[in-house]
TrEMBL record:
GO function term, MF aspect, one: translation initiation factor activity
Organism: Taxus chinensis (Chinese yew)
SUBUNIT field: Component of the translation initiation factor 2B (eIF2B) complex which is a heterodecamer of two sets of five different subunits: alpha, beta, gamma, delta and epsilon. Subunits alpha, beta and delta comprise a regulatory subcomplex and subunits epsilon and gamma comprise a catalytic subcomplex. Within the complex, the hexameric regulatory complex resides at the center, with the two heterodimeric catalytic subcomplexes bound on opposite sides.
Protein name: Translation initiation factor eIF2B subunit alpha
Family: Belongs to the eIF-2B alpha/beta/delta subunits family.
Lineage, top ranks: Eukaryota, Viridiplantae, Streptophyta, Embryophyta, Tracheophyta
Length: 352
């Protein structure tokens, strides 16, 4: 780097969209624009500005690589009168050596997409389409997307089809690693659809049709599960009772709405559900359904528990031991309810 470039290293002003080295004649003086930076003034003081040089040859290499070498002869050593500094031949030689003579900018070949990448994009796109329905749980959206993978598959063997399903399932689980219900829905779908080895010995078209049938059936069962739980769970809501809910659950919301539609008179106390305020969202939905709601702090559960008749939770996941995985605060709320002999119920679909 020459002394002039070093001296004014921090005086350059970025120019948006300036990528090529060019030379402009103005009043018999040369003005130059170098990749990414613009001179503050024409050489020899034209337009009453100052002249700055950039950190060549690195920047000049980028410019020459874009424009080619046809204008290099214009870069003759010239005196910058304002600073009495010279653009030296050595500086130009370094820049010229950085790019072989005659080399032009070439298009960088794009890496071809693999089949697995296309499948991943398709299943995520299908998942997002189903997920846009606010009434559809995330796990059900994943099940619908996996069922669509079977329909659209171009596989010629059952093993290849199962491989595509496995890749699609892994892609969905990786899309949101924190979602337990999404992961559980994908795993149960794979077990349900591919649960028998007899498919390996069937005609492929017949086996694929059976997989499609199972996938659609599992999707319908999962979609109807919430309504089934609401029908059965409304019996646990007594007249003139007060119910505590923690966080937002579509199943719990459907259950309480069903009870209200069937003439049950009750009130609900919702915790805030911080940090994402899921309790506030739950209270808005219940108020819209005509249910009396009171919103309390998460830390006020023990203070309020004496007024509660029933505690009702949703669940992100159900483990083999019968325990549940739900938003933070569920465990301590259950402990407080247990200490005061308050009944606790969990409403969750079987695919969780």
């Amino acid at each position: 780097m020459n002394s002039l470039a070093k001296k004014h290293k921090y005086n350059h002003r970025p120019v948006v969209g300036m990528k090529a080295l060019s030379f402009i004649k103005s009043s018999s003086h040369k003005r130059f624009l170098v990749s990414g930076f613009q001179t503050s003034m024409d050489i020899d003081g034209v337009n009453d500005r100052k002249a700055y040089l950039t950190d060549a040859p690195t920047v000049l290499h980028e410019a020459l690589y874009t424009k080619g070498m046809e204008d290099l002869h214009l870069l003759q050593p010239q005196i910058c009168n304002y600073y009495s500094e010279t653009v030296t031949p050595d500086w130009l030689a370094q820049a010229k050596a950085a790019v072989p003579h005659g080399q032009q900018q070439q298009n960088v070949p794009t890496t071809p997409k693999h089949k697995e990448e296309d499948e991943t994009f398709q299943v995520i796109e299908e998942f997002n389409k189903w997920r846009s329905d606010p009434e559809l749980a995330e796990a059900v959206a994943a099940i619908k997307a996996l069922a669509a993978v079977i329909k659209r598959s171009q596989a010629n063997t059952m093993m290849e089809l199962e491989h595509e399903l496995t890749n699609a399932s892994d892609s969905l689980k990786a899309w949101n690693e924190m979602s337990i219900s999404l992961s559980a829905g994908c795993d149960l779908f794979m077990r349900y659809v591919t649960r028998t080895n007899a498919l390996e010995y069937e005609d492929f078209s017949a086996g694929k049709s059976r997989l499609i049938e199972r996938g659609e059936r599992f999707g319908e069962i999962s979609f109807k599960a919430r309504k089934t739980i609401a029908m059965l769970g409304q019996d646990f809501v007594r007249d003139c009772s007060t119910i505590l809910v923690h966080g937002f659950s579509r199943v719990v919301l459907a259950l309480l709405k069903m009870a209200a539609l069937n003439g049950k008179h009750f009130s609900v106390i919702c915790t805030e559900g911080r940090p994402d305020n899921t309790g506030i969202e739950m209270s808005k939905e219940l108020i819209a359904a005509g249910v009396p709601v009171k919103l309390i702090l998460d830390s006020a559960v023990a203070y309020t528990m004496e007024k509660i008749d029933t505690v009702l939770f949703g669940a992100d996941g159900v483990v083999e031991s019968g325990g549940i995985i739900n938003m933070i605060g569920t465990y301590q709320t259950a402990l407080v309810a247990h200490s005061m002999n308050k009944p606790v119920y969990v409403a969750a679909e079987s695919f969780k």
